[in-house]
Structures are given as structure tokens and as C-alpha cells.
Design brief:
This protein is α/β, with parallel strands linked by helices. The chain has helices spanning 30-42, 57-60, 65-80, 106-113, 125-142, 173-183, 200-206, 255-273, 301-310, 326-343; strands at residues 2-4, 16-19, 22-25, 48-49, 148-151, 189-193, 212-219, 244-249, 277-282, 316-320. It has an eight-stranded parallel sheet with strand order 4-1-5-10-9-6-7-8, sandwiched between helices. A two-stranded antiparallel sheet has the order 2-3. The chain binds {5-[(3-aminopropyl)amino]pentyl}boronic acid and zinc ion (ZN). The site of {5-[(3-aminopropyl)amino]pentyl}boronic acid has 16 residues, from strand 2.
Length: 344
Amino acid sequence: MKAVYSPLHIGHVGGMELNRGALVPCFETPERADIILNAYREAGLGPIVEPEDYGEGPLRAVHEEAYLTFLKTIWERWVAAGRSGFALPFAIPGRSLRTDVLPEGVDGALGHFCFDVGTPIVEGTWQAAYGAAQAALTAADLLAGERAAFALCRPPGHHAGRSVYGGYSFLNNAAIAAEHLRARGHGRVAILDVDYHHGNGTQDIFWERGDVLYASIHADPATDFPYFLGYADEEGAGAGRGTTLNIPLPHGTGWDDGWGDALQRALDSIQAFGPGALVVSLGVDTWDGDPISGFKLTDKHFPLIGHAIAKLGLPTLFVFEGGYAVAEVGRNVVGVLDGFTTGR
Ligand code: OKP
Ligand code: ZN
């Protein structure tokens, strides 16, 4: 299996996030990608290639133009306003405030396009997000000749909606790849999201789409980020009615007491959907030692995930999402990919 990796991710670094009442260094660090890169190389899983440049067209297929313009220009606007450090919003339009106005200044713009206070923007953020999206697109096109590919994306993407960022995500790499697979004629596309957190952005983007299934296993939003989406009663709307499947699980869930069965349920729904290709939002923050998560998967379960996915027999694109136990993310990602390769 080939891996696609953009070195541009290293410019997205140095921000702080609000965590349990304190500003702390971001959990989402450049080392995460480098550790996976090394683990992938050491495991001999396959070649590592740099992305092709598809430009902004495929990004526009998923995100609104005004949102992309904001992401591209916000850092220079921030600096022009005399700011330094990192950009975070401090007012976000909640109930009774207008979401339809785009204020002129940087603070208003940040609040307009953002939904949390955990996703700082620095000088290299746009380039990093752009590189990650290009990696996902490049890996998607590898499925023309290969059974599977791995996009080593950083920053992650599944919390980014059509015109909103948050949850460490700016461009929705998995959604951009899924849309690209549709355009390339792969038939219906299924997205399986195994990250600890619900992919609210991906669900938002494909909510009314009957040709793209979104199935996610995640921590119950009643207790966990992103809190306001990912409940079991959300099933899609319009042409997309029935093509969203949310399987929220309580804190502390392990493989034997729920996660393994949830995976089988999600895989069954994907099989019933009859897709021509599968995109996996691959988060490994389900590991029991993850510093910001609460599931209890252990090392041996990650190959089982890969094995079970392989049994679908679909062209499969793995897109990296979360995983914050820095030393272990490499082993667990490799575990899934290796389980996929040896399992079929
Ligand atoms: C991104 B991905 C820590 C609390 C959680 C947001 C988590 C984003 C996870 N400050 N903050 O889905 O792994
Ligand atoms: Zn996550």
C-alpha cells in the first residue's frame, strides 16, 4: 500500500488551545505525522510519495468559496491587525445572534467561521491544510490501480464542515477525497469514521446526499466533543435520508463490550449500501491511553479493525484523523493498515 505525505504540515505548529479551563499547547502536533511516517517506513508497508497538486477546484466541491478565502487570508489579516502568536475566536454566534453576517474585522471573521476555541491558526496553517487535502486527493486517485491507499493527513479534517472549522480541522480531507472518488466514477461512496470523535463536518457535508453514506462510531456527544452533533437519531435528510448512521458509545467502551459489535454494524450498513469505494476516517484516539479520549481499545484491536474492513472487498482509502498519544499513534495506525493488508 502506498502512503501519501505532504511535508507542508510542519508549518501548522505552536498554537495553544483552551483545555479544561487553561490555555495549553495544542495536542495536535507535527510529531504525530512524523511518528506515523517512521512507523510506516519501519513496518515496510510500502512506498511513501508526495502529493500531486490538484489546485483548489476539488476543495470548492466541498467547501464554500468565502470560507476558503477566509482560511487563505486570515493569517495575513491577523498580522496586519497588529496581532502575533496564534489566532483564536472569542465570540461565536450562539442562539439569538446572527450567523448570516460576515463581520469585517478579524475577530468577527474568526467567530463567523469557527465553532470551538481549540483550533488555533498560525502562519503555516493554510499551507498545511492544503497539503493534507492534496494528499487525500492523490491517495484517492491511487485507487484507480490499487486496492488501498493511505493519506497521512495532518491537520485532520472530519470536523470541518462546508464553511466552518474546529476540532483541529480546516479542510475536510475525507470528504474532499470522497467527492473526488464520485467525480472519478467510482460509484456510490461510503465513509467509515472510526475516530473517537464524531465527524460532524463530514456528516454536515453529505447530510442530504443519497450517493454518499456516512457511518460513524464515536463517543456519545452527550458527554464528548463535538457535543452538538453525532446523536443516534440523526439519519440524514432529503435524498440523504437513511444514509447517515451514527453509533454513539459511552465513555469507557472497549472492543468486547460494544466497539467490536458497533464496527460490525457499521460494516453491515456499508455492505447493504453497495458502494464502489470506501473512505476510512482513521482516528486511533480510541486507544485506551489517549490523553483526550475515553475508549479502551488496546494494541491488538487495531489489526482487527483493518482485517474487518478488508473483508468488505472494496477499494479503500485510509485518511488519517485523530490520535494524540504521540508515541503510540504510529504503532496503532500501522496496526490497522497491516491488518487490512494481511487480512484479505
Ligand atoms: C479532533 B479529532 C481538548 C478537548 C477536545 C477537541 C478534540 C478534537 C479532536 N481541548 N478538543 O477528531 O481527533
Ligand atoms: Zn478524534
